[in-house]
Design goal:
Layout: H1 4-13, E1 21-22, H2 23-30, H3 36-45, E2 56-57, H4 70-80, E3 84-85, E4 88-89
Parallel strand pairs: 1-2
Antiparallel strand pairs: 3-4
Helix pairs in contact: 1-2, 1-3, 2-3
The chain binds a DNA duplex (13 and 13 nucleotides) through α2, α3 and β2.
Length: about 90
Amino acid sequence: MVSFQERVFQVVKKIPPGEFLTYKMVAKLAGRPWAWRAVGNILNKNKNPKIPCHRVIRSNGRVGGYNQGMKKKIYLLKKEGIIIKHGKVAC
DNA sequence: CGTATGACGTGCA
DNA sequence: GTGCACGCCATAC
């Protein structure tokens, strides 16, 4: 039995380049589909650069936030091939 | 143990 | 389409 946070990290680390998941998706893959709230909290407190948390966005298409700065998150996503439009993803 | 917070999501105006 | 308010879970204090 591991913490929900570790479960989320494992899922996020499995996200391939050029792809992205929503907080709800990560929560579901982590085993707590209804705990997307906690997903954001965990990633927020997480400072591990090994976690591509920039590939996790909101369900409405918004990029959401980022500990290192939303600008950095958008930059990374765009560099991966994801189109960002006015702070939104592929919309 | 109880309260408050937060990188959210959905509903309504 | 945008903005505000409420509800939700896990973690921190």
